[in-house]
Amino acid sequence: MFMGVFYGLARKQHNRGKMFSSKIFRIFSIVLPVLLHGSYDFIASMENTMGGLYFVASLLYFLHCLLDW
Fold this sequence. Notes:
By secondary structure, this protein is mainly alpha-helical. It has helices spanning 2-15, 19-45, 51-68. It contains 3 helices and no strands.
């Protein structure tokens, strides 16, 4: 989902002729899903029952920051 959103934003910026922001969104479309997937795998492998809560809280914080941007 995150990859598609950021890639779509990159295409929109590219079509508008804004190459720098297009490049930033393309980088986000790769880096953010990798980081989210890696953090999810790390938390899922923890034996702490609070791991899922940590992931959900960090995801909600990320979405909050993204929507304010």
